Amino acid sequence: MNVTAQDEIFNYVEGVRQALGGLPAATREELLEDLPEHLAEVLAEGGGTLVGRLGSPSTYAAELIASAGLADAAADERPARGARLGQLRAQARDAMRRADVRFGPLLGYAKASEFLVLLRPAWWVLRGYLVAMAFAYVVDDNGGPIGLLPRIGNNELVALLLLAAAVLGSIWLGRRGEPAQRMPRLLLRGGGVALAIFAFAGFLETDGQARDGAYLEMSYVSEYSDVRDVFVYDSRGNLVQGAQLYDQYGNPMRFGDPGCYEEGTGNWVASRQLGYPYCPEQAPFRSSAGNSDPRRAEPSEGPAEPAAPSPSGLP
Q: What is the pTM of this model?
């Protein structure tokens, strides 16, 4: 049986259920127990819609009450609160029908529900995916992020098998249509709402992780981030003052701030040097000409002056 017939049966049963609202719940469910199967047989015979064959749901409900000898009981036991609730439900259904007709042309259909019916297969696939992800989220105890696949124990094969089983099961369930019984139908709808909430929460979490990842990438710290000064030595091991650094494109290379921290006070003082180093007196190595800080008496471990070649060219 196709989905359209299932929808017609479901809507008709719901209409009869609303019309029987004045009866006790047990009596009402007893009258409706075999109704879906009977309606399916009526549709299988052909000859028009259920309303055209059996009349409106309220008319059919009146016939059920009369055939069961419950006409007086229905009139006596209908509470005022139930009548008001039934009236509110009827008004809500009318509002939904009007909205269905009003928004349908915006989607290119006479009714919006006709377009939503086309989206049902997509929802079945998405529902299976969300079921697999929710199952992996609850069962997996790896502690790491699951990702976009329902990984359990960080196993790709298990994730693909679980995803395939969940999607196929969801499609099979969707093709069966909504259950005729009230409790299974409510469970199915409630599960869909829970999956929608789970999907929204997962979307927010994924979006937050993407934003955090982008922030960390932009705040990357290079190995030269702590460089405050640059000391350049020539081939003889002499400190070069006023040196300028450029990259291969001719762009100046900047390190640190043009200033020095005084060793005694720790205060920062702006440098008057036009290039590197900013603080020549804080050079890490003594130059061979002795133009580094005279307070540094330890032997130099910096660049050494190359030996001059002998006149004969021999070592």
A: 0.43
Give counts: helices (H), strands (E), the chain.
Answer: 11, 4
Confidence tier at 28 by pLDDT (50, 70, 90): confident
Instruction: Work out the angle at residue 34's Cα, subtended by the Cα atoms of residues 33 and 39, and round it to the nearest 5 degrees.
Output: 130
Identify the DSSP state of 34.
T
Give me the pLDDT at residue 160, please. Answer: 92
Beta-carbon count within 10 A of 32 CB:
19
Among 70, 120, 87, CA closest to 18: 87
Question: Residue 154: what residue type?
Answer: N
3-class secondary structure per residue, 134-192 = HHHHHHCCCCCCCCCCCCECCEHHHHHHHHHHHHHHHHHHHHHCCCCCHHHHHHHHHHH
pLDDT in tens, 38-88: 888 888 777 678 887 788 888 888 887 877 666 555 454 445 455 566 667
- Dihedral sign, CA of 174, 176, 181, 184? negative
Give the start-to-end residue ranges of the domains of the chain: 3-117, 120-218, 224-306
Write the pLDDT tens digit of every residue in 190-247.
999 999 999 998 888 877 777 765 444 454 556 777 888 899 998 888 999 889 999 8
Answer whether residue 302 shows pLDDT above 60.
no
Cα-to-chain-centroid distance, residue 269: 52
Selection from 21, 18, 83 nearest residue 56 by Cα: 18
CA dihedral 232→238→241→245, nearest 10 degrees, is -20
